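re: ur msg from earlier - yeah i can do the arginine complex, just paste it... oh wait u already did. ok heres what im feeding in:
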Amino acid sequence: MADDKKKTTSTMWGGRFAEGPAEAMERFNACLDEDKRLAMEDIDGSLAHAAMLGAQGILTAEEADAIAKGLETIRQEIIDGSFTWSEALEDVHMNVESRLRELIGDPAGKLHTGRSRNDQVATDTKLYTRRRLDTLAERLRDVQKAFLAQAEGHTETVMPGFTHLQIAQPISYAFYCMAYVEMFERDRQRLLNARTVLNESPLGAAALAGTPHPIDRQSTAKALGFDGPARNALDAVSARDFALEAVSAASICAVHISRYAEEVVVYATPQFGYVTVGDTYSTGSSIMPQLRNLDAAELLRAQVAPVSGAFTALTLATKGLPLAYSKDLQEVKKPLMEALDALDIALDILARMIASTVPNPEAMARDANKGFSTATDLADGLAKLGVPFRDAHHIVGALVALAEGKGCLLSEVSLAEAQKVSPHITQEMLEGLTPLASIRAKQSEGSTSPEAVEAQMAYWRGMLAT
Ligand code: ARG
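and the outut:
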C-alpha cells in the first residue's frame, strides 16, 4: 500500500488538527455526486437562514444583503456549470460557504451562525424529497389518465377475468383498466402522505441542541414552504424516516408497476394477443426476425429491484443509529435518490407505453368465452329461482363436467341433458350464457357491468380533468 498522501488541514474545521485527512479519506468522506443534486435546495435554505439572521438583527442588513447576493451568484454559477466543486470540501454546504467567502469576504463566515451542517443536510434532503414526491404524484396522474383513455369506449369489450391465472369470469377491458387507476391512486396518496408527514423544518435545530442565538425558526420554516419548525431539535437532525417513508411508498408503487408490466408481457404474447404495445415501446430480437419483444414492460417489471433495494439500504443505513447525527446518515442520500430516479423514469415510461397500447377485442372475446367463464352466471340464475347457491354451485359443477366431456360450451349442452341435472334450467338460461350477458347482468356497485364501469369512469374523468 502506497503511503497515504496527507493534505493541509481543512479551512472549515481544521483548527484542532496538525495534519489534514489522507487523500483516500477525503475521497471516502465526500458526497459530491449526491450533493450536487441538493445544490438548489441548499441555496434556498441558506437564503432563508440569512434573511432571518438579518431580520433578527443577528447580522446587519448589509451583511445579510451581501450574503444573499453572493448566494444568488453561486446559484447561477452552479446552473451554468462554472462552479468549481472541491472534494476536499466534502459536501455542498462547505463548497457553497467556501465560494461565498471568495465572493464576499468576511460576512460569509457569519452565515453559519445558529445552524449546523446537521440541520442543513436534513433540511436540504427534505426539500429535495418533497420536490421529487410532487413530481412523482404528477406522473401518477399521467399514468391514471393513460389508463382512463384506454378504458374509453370499452365498457362492453369483454375479456377474461382471471383468478390463479385461470379464466374465471368475463369482465370488460374498461373495468380492467380502471382497476389500475384505483391502484395507482392509492400509490399517489401514499406519496402525498409522505410529503405531508415530512413537511416540518429541521432548520435552526443546529447541531442537535438548538442555539443560543435568537433565531426565528418560524420564519425560515415559512420561507421554505414547511408547515412549521420541527418541535424537537434532537429529533430534527436525527430523523431520516421521511426518506424511508418516501421510498417505502415508492416501493409499493414499483410493485404495482411490476404487476401491470407482467400482465402486458403475458397479454401481448401471440398466445394471448389481447393487447399490442406500440412499435415505439416494443423492441426486436437481433437474431429472431419474427419477435416483438416487450422490453419496456420487462424493464418496468424489474424497476422494483432498485426501488425496493433502496428501501433495504435505507433501513440498514439508519438501523441502530444513536441520536443525533452520525456519518452513516450521509449514506441515506444515494439510495433515496436512486429510488426516486428509478420510480420517476418508470412512471414516465409506463404512461407512454400505455398510451401506445392498442387492445385487440377479438382475442379477448375469444378467451372470454373459454373455460366455462359463465358458469357462475348459471349458478346465480338458479339461485335467483330460489335454489340455494351451494346447491346451484353443485348442479353447475356437474354440467361443467358434462360439457367438458363433450368438448362443448355450457350454452351448447342440450336442454334435455341439462334438465336431467336440474329441472330448473331453461333454454333461455342456457342461451344467455354469453360473456356480454354476464357483464351486463352484474348489478352491484363497483362491478364490471357497463353502467358501473361508466360510473367509475365518470368519477375519474372529473378527478383527472383538473
Ligand atoms: N456531508 C454530511 C452529510 O451529508 C453533512 C453533515 C455533516 N455533519 C457532521 N457532523 N459531520 O450527511
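cool cool. The domain at 370-465 is CATH 1.10.40.30 (Ribonucleotide Reductase Protein R1; domain 1). ping me if u need the other ligands too
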